[in-house]
Amino acid sequence: MKITTIGIDLAKSVFQVHGVDVRGKAVLRKQLKRSQFLLFFSNLPPCLIGMEACGSAHHWARKLQGLGHTVKLIAPQYVKPYVKTNKNDAADAEAICEAVARPSMRFVAIKTVEQQAVLSEHRVRQAFVQARTAQANQIRGLLAEFGLAIPKGIANLPKQVPLILENPAYELPAVFRELMGGLLAHFHELDCQVDALGARIMAWHRDSAASRKLAQIPGIGPLGASALVSAIGDAKTFKNGRQLAAWLGLVPRHQGTGGKQTLLGISKRGDVYLRTLLIHGARSAILAAQRRSETDSWLAKLVKRRNPNVAAVALANKNARTVWALLAHDREFQSGYAAAA
Question: Which of 149, 312, 326, 341 is 20 to 30 A removed from 156 (C-alpha atoms)?
């Protein structure tokens, strides 16, 4: 019996496989060890393979595509409704096999090796930024115990702490001075790591035409542009700009019954990192517009009638739609562009 559709439940060492024929009848239930995985699929005729978009999914998807199979990645929350009974590997593989065959299912674009590498740099940089902030807060907290306060802003920390440690008037114990010196050295090391990764991301941005194109949008800088290009990949995976904005969690949740729809708060679904970059970039664009004393633009009118935070999210939503239009239709950014009626 020819296998047409396969669902794979990925794991670290053991993979569960569930396959069906053209009539949907189960003809394959098998566990494969890691060393057997590619060998097994190299001996199968090309078929449709579904997997959850989880750790290592993009790697195995590229490998299986190289063997001639059609591979689709599904977000885990879309697979869960198809699990019929208690959760286990076999039930998960069967649910994935069922979900991947649905005509209305939404799939995750398979990332290239380059995309994953750039996103890895973004993730590591963000982790260093968080660690640097935590280290700065710890230094501030310990100094506060001795009645010493440092002005706001992370740039003030490396300037003020050495002056405090060298000043004998504060009567700080030698043990504490030595401790603060070590913590400040750790802060400097984290700061250097953030700068080094930022420089590498900037170099990739300069070499990417798509990233340079997105950086022209007010509110999207090199960091946001490179992250968006790497995360989105093929923008045509999304039907329109609103789908991309919804994928980023920048649209309201809604619920309705009896023909009545109720809009709720922003959904905050999708990638927190990308959404944060877009919203913070929108805040910067709003401040820049206020410095220019704009009065007639869409953004200026929005800021006048709505809360600044609401305006920032609205601009981030608009920028996400603009990103989709530029990438999907291969266009250049035009300030003040208006779609034809």
Answer: 312
- Taking alpha carbons only, the member of 232, 9, 260, 254 closest to residue 109 is 232
91 or 337: which leads in pLDDT: 91
CA-closest candidate to residue 220, choices 229, 208, 233: 229
Is the per-residue pLDDT at 183 higher than 70?
A: yes
- The pLDDT value recorded for residue 339 is 64
Show the domain range for 187: 113-207
The DSSP bridge pattern shows strands 252-257 and 14-20 to be: unpaired
The answer to whether residue 262 scores a pLDDT higher than 90 is no
Tell me which of 78, 100, 122 is where a domain ends: 100
Each residue of 207-230: pLDDT tens digit?
999 999 999 999 999 999 999 999
Q: How many domains does the chain divide into?
A: 3
**H helix or E strand, kind and range, residue 33:** strand 26-33
Averaged pLDDT, 138-165: 92
How many whole angstroms separate alpha carbon 255 and alpha carbon 317? 20
Choose one of 73, 100, 127: the last residue of a domain.
100
- Give the global pTM: 0.87
* Integer Cα distance of 133 and 136 in angstroms: 5
Whether 334 maps to a domain, the answer reads no
8 A C-beta contact, residue 99 and residue 78 = yes
Q: Which of 183, 205, 202 is nearest to 194 (CA)?
A: 202
Residues 233 and 179 in one domain: no
Residues forming a β-bridge with 72:
50
Do 185 and 228 belong to one domain? no
CATH number for the domain that contains residue 94: 3.30.420.140
Q: Are 122 and 231 in contact (CB under 8 A)?
A: no
- CA quadruple 196, 198, 199, 202: dihedral, nearest 10: 160
**What are the DSSP calls for 52-93, one per residue?**
ES-TTHHHHHHHHHHTT-EEEEE-HHHHGGG--SS--HHHHH
Please provide residue 198's backbone torsions phi and psi, each rounded to the nearest 5 degrees: -60, -40
Work out whether the CA dihedral 67, 72, 73, 78 comes out positive or negative.
Answer: negative
